[in-house]
Structures are given as structure tokens and as C-alpha cells.
Give the backbone structure.
Amino acid sequence: MKQKIGIILLVISIMWVLHTFSKNYIVDPSFEKFISRKDQILTDERLWIWMIRIHILLAIISLITGPLGIIKALRDKSRSFHRCNGRLYVLSILLNFIPGVYVSFFATGGWTSVVGFLILNTLWLGTTLLGFYYIKRKKVILHSQWITRSFFLSFANMTIYVIVVIAHNLMNFAYENSYTIAVWLSWPLNLLVAELMIRKKVFI
């Protein structure tokens, strides 16, 4: 059962990576549709586009390396691969903090969404660094718990997308309100799922 959960998460990660990459680098590489929905003026559109591209690319790396790190069978098969993969995961989130914070200040929904995103970015970085801190001190259980929280926060964008579809398209909420609700629900919901996985000891 635990192995199946890991494989399911890997499949979901790959599917979301393909969706994100095609949407933002092939279908709409200039982010025209995304920008048209914004209720805030971009002070420097070219800088914002570069920052969002970096943010998305680094998020894709974390979504690829994340499931490869939490699947127990892969960890047991090659510890050296697990360490290299883990370092790349941590580095992708560490480097993503600045572009993540930058694009947060132009989030749809105004300052309510901005604050929600800043909390999300801080939690993502904090849980990741705690996971790295504990493995350096050979506290494997604490490392696994904090990296699990970090990994599920990596799915925040997917959670936001799903909630916006439900609230805006199915429940007819205004797009700005739907987006704000989604931002504030994304990190507590993802952390709740992470805690359930931790209690069930799925990745330990």
C-alpha cells in the first residue's frame, strides 16, 4: 500500500509537470492569458515574466526530485542517488524563494493573496531547510517528517488550480475571490495531507 501511494504521487507529479510545462512554455509562453486576469499593474512586465519562468522551472525540478526522494524503494536501492537527488531538491526550493516572493507581490486578489503566498513561500522554504538540518544531524525520522511536509507544499500550485476551477467555474465565484480563497486553502490543506502521511508512516 505504501509503495502504491509513492507511485501514485510520482505519476501525479509527472502529469502536473507536463501540464505546467506545456501551459507556460508552449501554449502561452508570454503569459498573456495569466496577465490579463491580474487585477494589479505589473511595474516591470519583462522582469515579472523572467521571474515567473524561473519560479516555474525550479518548481518543476522540485516536483520531479520530490517523489524520487520520498519513495522508500528508491532510497533503499541507492543511497548515493538519494543524497544527490535530495540536494537538488533542496537547492531548487532554496533558489526559488526570491522569485517566489517577487511574483507573490503581484498576485491576483490584492494584498490578501500576497500575504497568503508569502506564508506559503516561507513554509515551503522553512520545512525544506528543517528537513535538510535534521538529516545533517542523522535524525532520519525528523528529516523524513519535515521533507514530507515540504514535498506536499510543492503541490500548492496544483491545489490552487483545482480550487479555482471549482470555485470560479463550477460555483461562479469571481475569479479574484476564487484565487484568494485557493491561495489561503492551498497550504493548510496540503500540510493536512502531509500530516496524515506522517501519522501513517507512509514514507518512513
Remarks:
- The first helix runs from residue 2 to 27.
- The chain has a mean pLDDT of 91.
- Residues 76 and 82 are 9 Å apart (CA to CA).
- The radius of gyration is 17 Å.
